[in-house]
Amino acid sequence: MFFKKKNKEQVKEIQPQGKKVIFWGASDRMVCCEGIDCEVNEFNVTSNPKLNEIGYVCTLEISAPNESQGLLIHCFYSGHWSFAVSPSDEDSEELPAWHIERTWGKTNSHSETLEIYCPNNSRVEVINRIE
């Protein structure tokens, strides 16, 4: 699947609305989150069989009630943590209209910090990695 290119007139800045959720990596074994409903706020490779130890560690899915589409977060570890985002619906070419901010080292010096403003009552869970 390829995303359609947009010209500058089609691109709108999405303003922060909803609940601020933060994701970051900790040590070499955990993806942490804050501000969202989830089973645990530290997804640890030693206790969750869906997480891999290095490289493409896991996929997290954010879903929200009454929203047809959510967001996938692909988590990578290579000595540093980084994240990629994509639509949760493989037939969609658009991300949900949720404001996303990325910074380096804001929470941990060896991790990107991903901040997503998603609807209230959103939930995150680990799903099987896309292979």
Descriptive key words:
single chain, 131 residues, mainly beta, 5-stranded mixed beta sheet, 10 strands, 44% strand, globular
What oligomeric state do these chains adopt? single chain
Distance between the termini: 15 Å
* Secondary structure tally, helices: 0
Major β-sheet profile: 5 strands, antiparallel
Calculate Rg over CA atoms.
15 Å
Summed over residues and divided by their number, the pLDDT gives a mean of 88
Number of strands: 10
Gross morphology: globular
Major beta sheet, strand line-up: 4-2-1-9-8
Strand content: 35-45%
Helix content: under 10%
The ordered string of helix (H) and strand (E) elements is: EEEEEEEEEE
- Look at the helices and sheets and give the structural class: mainly beta
Residue runs with pLDDT of under 50 for 5 or more positions: none
Any overview of this molecule?
By secondary structure, the protein is mainly beta. The chain is built from no helices and ten strands. It has strands at residues 19-26, 30-34, 37-38, 42-44, 55-63, 71-77, 81-87, 100-104, 112-118, 123-127. The strands form two sheets. It has a five-stranded antiparallel sheet with strand order 4-2-1-9-8, with no helix packed on it. The chain has a five-stranded mixed sheet with strand order 3-10-5-6-7, with no helix packed on it. A hairpin with a 7-residue loop joins β5 (55-63) and β6. The radius of gyration is 15 Å and the shape is globular. It starts with 18 loop residues before the first strand and ends with a strand. The model has no long low-confidence stretch (mean pLDDT 88).
